[in-house]
Amino acid sequence: MIRVLIADDEPLMRAGIKAILGTAEDIELVAEAGDGREAVRIALERRVDVAVLDIRMPRLDGLAAARELKAVAPAVRVVMLTTFGEDDNIVRALADGAAGFLLKDSAPEELLRAVRAVHSGEAYLSPMVTSRVVGMVAAVGQPRRQEAMRQVAGLTEREVEVLSLLGLGMSNADVGQRLHMSEATVKTYVSRLLAKLGLTNRVQAALLARDAGLAG
């Protein structure tokens, strides 16, 4: 059972998210919060697997809450929810440790997919967010490209192969099938890559792969 916390300052929005989560037999809503500060407190008190955070909240916004959760409860996976699609929010959310990013007008099934994906260690970006990220990467400047290439220079050949496929958005199962490895072995490689590169999640790894020109 995936234990989920939702944080949004709009009661109606929380009710909608609660209704969507309630349709899934493998997901349990364990707590609700009206702001980021309350969300962090509850996440520390309850055994929460996934926190669904609105970016725009009083007292402590979702970005700051994600940053605090990464520091004090790194096992909690974060899905960001927002009505805004600004590129700076996407970049900041990913940098602050979010493993998923959805717009509030996404289809209900997307929320369920996102919760399940981040809980299993995958990353999830809504299609609209993905297109924005790809656009940002396509416009990457030469200094950023050089820095990304410097970061990956110390990886082994196999690690580079895995990182390249992460950059294409592949799941662990897809990577394993492509490279003829078990899913467990892929997970080990992904964990090792994140540690060696000083990254928090697969989304950051995928962006680095694209920055370095490894993902086509």
UniProtKB/TrEMBL annotation:
Which of UniProt's keywords are assigned here? DNA-binding, Phosphoprotein, Transcription, Transcription regulation
Q: Which stretches make up the Response regulatory domain?
A: 3-119
Q: Which PANTHER family match?
A: TRANSCRIPTIONAL REGULATORY PROTEIN NARL-RELATED, TWO-COMPONENT RESPONSE REGULATOR
InterPro entries in alphabetical order: CheY-like_superfamily, NreC/VraR/RcsB-like_REC, Sig_transdc_resp-reg_C-effctor, Sig_transdc_resp-reg_receiver, Tscrpt_reg_LuxR_C, WalR-like
One BP term from GO: phosphorelay signal transduction system
What range(s) does the HTH luxR-type domain occupy?
Answer: 148-213
This protein is called Transcriptional regulator, LuxR family
**What residues bear 4-aspartylphosphate in this entry?**
54
PROSITE patterns annotated for this entry? Answer: HTH_LUXR_1, HTH_LUXR_2, RESPONSE_REGULATORY
GO MF terms, alphabetically ordered: DNA binding
Organism taxonomic ancestry: Bacteria, Bacillati, Actinomycetota, Actinomycetes, Pseudonocardiales
